[in-house]
Amino acid sequence: MNYYPPAGFHFLVEFNISGQSEDVRFQEVAGLTVQMQTEELAEGGQLRFAHKLPLRTQYDNLVLKRGLVLNSNLIKWCQNAIENFSFQPSNLMVKLLNEAHQPIGVWNVVHAYPVKWSISAFNAEKSELAIETLELCYHYFNYRPA
Predict the structure, then answer these.
(1) Where residue 76 sits, what CATH number does that domain have?
(2) Domain range for residue 122?
(3) What pLDDT is attached to residue 146?
(4) Is the pLDDT of residue 110 over 90?
(5) How far does Cα 19 stand from its chain's mean position?
(6) Which segments within 50-119 are labelled E, that is strand?
(7) Which pLDDT score, from 0 to 100, does residue 19 have?
């Protein structure tokens, strides 16, 4: 049996706060990255190397891009945080889907809240969609195959 890695273009993002189907459609998800921080410890008398000891995990911000959605509950959530400094963290799931639209892998992102919202440049010389970018800070994620 041949194994083929899944395509990275068929995915879904689900927020606990969103009630609109448009709020799950993104063209790009980035930032599902975890890295172990380490601390160097020099051992007396050993000059060739230093021991690297694990400290804690560090997670990048989650970056979501999509075409601008009007009257979005997700953007209202972002605006409330950014404009009113009223943060309501939410969990979300990023699901990688197969050709039958079934999840084959799920990343559960815990305690996410918006830290940046931006809109792409408007340019009268180009025929491009208006793209909004959401950047979310979060505590951690865990992965599970579906």
Answers:
(1) 2.30.110.20
(2) 11-30+66-145
(3) 81
(4) yes
(5) 19
(6) 51-59, 62-67, 90-97, 103-119
(7) 62
Query: How many domains is the chain built from?
Result: 1
Q: Is 95 a residue whose pLDDT tops 60?
A: yes
Is 76 a member of any domain? yes
Cross-strand bridge partners of residue 33: none
59 in any annotated domain: no
- Which residues are within 8 A (CB) of 112 and not within 5 positions of it... i.e. 6 or more apart? 62, 89, 90, 91, 92, 136, 137, 138
| The token pair that represents 141 in the structure block | 């994620």
Mean pLDDT for 28-56 is 91
State the pTM of this model.
0.86
Q: Evaluate whether residue 37 is within a structural domain.
A: no
> Please, are residues 50 and 42 in contact by the beta-carbon 8 Å criterion?
yes
Contact between 146 and 105 under an 8 Å Cβ cutoff? The reply is yes
64 forms beta bridges with 29, 134
Alpha-carbon Rg for the chain, nearest whole angstrom, is 20
Task: Give the integer Cα–Cα distance in Å for 65 and 5.
Answer: 23
Q: How confident is the model at residue 2 (pLDDT cuts 50, 70, 90)?
A: confident
